[in-house]
Structures are given as C-alpha cells and as structure tokens.
Amino acid sequence: MNLKNTAPKKAATRKTNLKSIFRPFSLTPDKANKTYNILVLLNTFLLLAGGAFLVYQMQHDFAQFRVERLSSTWGFMFFAIATTLFLYKAGFFIYQLFLYFRYKPIASVSNEELPTVTVIVPAYNEGKQVYATLKSLTKSDYPKEKIQLLAIDDGSKDDTWHWMKETKKQLGDQVAIYQQPENKGKRHALYRGFNIGTGDVFVTVDSDSVVNTNTLRNLVSPFITNEQCGAVAGNIRVLNNAKALLPKMLDVSFVMSFEFVRSAESKLNSVLCTPGALAAYRRTAVLACLPEWINQKFMGKPSDIGEDRAMTNMILKQGYHVLFQRNAYAYTNVPERYKGLYKMFIRWGRSNVRESIAMAKYVFTDFREGSKTGSRLLFFSQATKLVMCYPFLLFMLYFIMVHPVLFVSSTLASILVLSSFQTIFYAKRYNFSESFWAYTYSILYTFGLFWITPYAIATASRSGWLTRELPQQE
C-alpha cells in the first residue's frame, strides 16, 4: 500500500469536511455588508441614547454652566444672539414646512407643447459610466425630433472618449459627440454645448448620472406653464447607495435637501441652486448672461467651480423664476470614502461663499417684478450661516475645552431630536429602514465635517475641482 499517496487524500478530505461544517456560519459579501450596516446603526443608537441619558443625569451641571455663562457680559451677549438666531431658524423652518405642504410639481405638458431641448452631457474621466448616462437619456419618452443630445469629453485621461464613440456607433444620429483639445474644466465644456445647442431649453446632465424615462418632459414643462420661469432644478437621488455607507447617508440627506428645502424655495420662485446633475435653463436666459458666466472671476481669479450655482444666480438676477420639479429624477454617483466626500463639500462650500456675495449685490434691489421677500429671506438664511460660522466654532471649541462631557452629550441629544424630522420625512417618502441613516450622517457631519464651512470661507479664493482626479469609488 502506498502511504504517500493516501495521506494527502485524507488531509484533503478533512479540509473539505471542515469547510462543509463551517460553511453555514460563513458570510457572503452581501451578508457581511448587511451585518456591518446593522452594527453601524446599532452603535449610532447607542451613542444617541447615551447622550440623551447623560443630559438627563447631568441637568444640574448644565444649569450651572448656563448660570456661569450668563453672569459674564460676553456670555450673555452670545446667549442673546444664539437665542435670537434659534428662534429665527425655528420660525423659518415652520415657514418652510408651510411652503412644502403647498408645493406641487407641475405635470408634464403634451408632446405638442413640449419645447425643443438641447441636452448637454460634459464628461471627464468618467469611463463607461458616460455610456450608461447617454443610453438612459435616449430612452426618454420625449419626442425624438425635439431632442438634441450633445456629449462633450473635457480632455479625459481615461477611456471616456472611447465609450462616447461606442455610444455614437450604437445610437447614430441620436447623439453628437465632441472632444475638447485639452482639459479646460466643466464650465468650458458646458459653454461649448451652449454655443452649439439649438434647443429652446438647455438641459445639463452630469456624466455620472442616469435619468428616468419621464424625467426630461417633467423637467422642462414649467417653461411652458410659466413664462417667467428661467431655470428648473431636478430631483437628485443617489445612484451608488446599494452597499457603501456614505452613499446611503447622502441619499437621505439629498432627499431632505431637494424634496423639502427646494420644494419650499420653489414656492418662493427662488431655488438658489440648480444642480449640475440635472437642471434646465431657458435659452434666452442663458445667452443673456453667457459672457459674464464664462468670464466670471472671484478675487481676480477665473472661477472654475460652482458653475451651476453661478448660472442660477445670474438667471435669478435677470428677474426670472427658478423652480424645482420633484417629479424629474436623476440618480447620480457620490463619493464612497471620506476623502472624496470632504473634497466635494469644500468645493460646494467655496461656491456657496462666492455666490452668496454675488447675490448680496442684487437681492435687495428691484431685480424682478412681484414679491422679492422670499428671495431675501432665503438669502438672509444663507448669509447668517456664513456670518455666524466662526463665532459658533469658537464657542464650540471653548465648550469642548471647559466641559467636554457636557458638549458631547448635549450634541448627541440634539442630533437625536433634530434628525428625527429628517428620518420621518425620508421614511414617509421612500423607505423606513433606510431612513435611520439620517442619524448616522448627522453624527458624521457634526463631528467629522464641521470644519468644512469655516475652511471653505477661509479658502474661498482657491480654485480647483478637487475630486476630478480621484478614482470613481472615492
């Protein structure tokens, strides 16, 4: 008998038996991912419950801290300002709630009434995703003879141009593709599209987004029903939220930002930002401000960020209404890692600073017919966040140094209370189980991203897209 040959077979058999024994206890990637998500949510609720419990147990310490602060002149002044702002924010939130319940998206007009549209898709280092974007647009139930679809490669360093050519081969005359000689930035890619486009309405769609079949017709219908409409913001949801934690959190945040905040802004005819992922503009309104937009500068430097917010601002300045269409959906990819997330937020923060300054120059003038109170209230709400940013940051740092336990516990208890509205709102609109990510996101933003706004203010003059060179998963 050959023992050398039988020993390996026996060992292999034992390994196989062990695998079969432990297989029921092993986790597939999907199960492991779900388990991890559950653990994150459990830890979130433990933190929030712990914070609420500490606040209850330390009521005497909180009372003593308030007495100490109110006994000093600076402490009393800060308390008075903070109370005033809190009452204003609470009142403004109730006003937003009132506007939200009054908001209704405009239903699609008939095929005969729909305007001609030029859909512009700028792309940079997007790879195969641009193919999915263009395909989703060609599946729209919009009259084919009224759509001009333009895809513009902004000097990509990957295979984006290859996928554009593949799309062209499949779709033929349904899409026209162009390539910038070098990377000039998204604003210049859009500028080329605006100059080429022949539609009565320009629609911009990011190359990492996909749309529903009825998105285009719903998006542009307000231009027919409202002659004063100059721009329309689409409803943005997260595309890559199946597994990664950050996209799950951002999806809840986006629903609050778009479906609540922009619904309220739309009732005031003053949506402050039409998102690059999906927006529509009246042709005449764009052409009227196009030279100013492409040559825009901030502190002497060309603006290469915030092109969507800048276009919105310039159209509002002309006296047009800017609306939101909740029934026009686009699904877009968002960062899956912290580095990509904070870079995206920095870019948005700098744009917010720049355009708030630009808006201050006209919002208190007679810039349009009819009521301008709503626009001014929205501006004031934005401006107070920027003006009070550093005072509250200093108070927070002081609070942490003097009473770290009181700070952490009160902050967690506040998140538990304030984020509950966002949770309920998302649960009512979409999914109950996913709504709890609102709490996790609030903790992340409060403790991990609080520095974004003060940093963006301090570096508002800096240019650069920040995330353009990052891998897509970032």
From TrEMBL:
Q: Where is the signal peptide?
A: none
Q: Which CDD domains match?
A: CESA_like
Q: Which InterPro entries match?
A: Nucleotide-diphossugar_trans
Q: Which Pfam families match?
A: Glyco_tranf_2_3
Q: Which residues cross the membrane?
A: 36-56, 76-101, 377-400, 438-458
- Any one GO molecular-function label of the UniProt entry: hyaluronan synthase activity
Q: What is its main location?
A: membrane
A GO BP entry: extracellular matrix assembly
Keywords attached to this Swiss-Prot or TrEMBL record, sorted alphabetically, are:
Cell membrane, Glycosyltransferase, Membrane, Transferase, Transmembrane, Transmembrane helix
Q: In the UniProt record, which is one GO cellular component term? A: plasma membrane
The record, for SUPFAM superfamilies, names:
Nucleotide-diphospho-sugar transferases (SSF53448)
Where in or outside the cell is it found? Cell membrane
The name this protein carries in UniProt is: Glycosyl transferase family 2
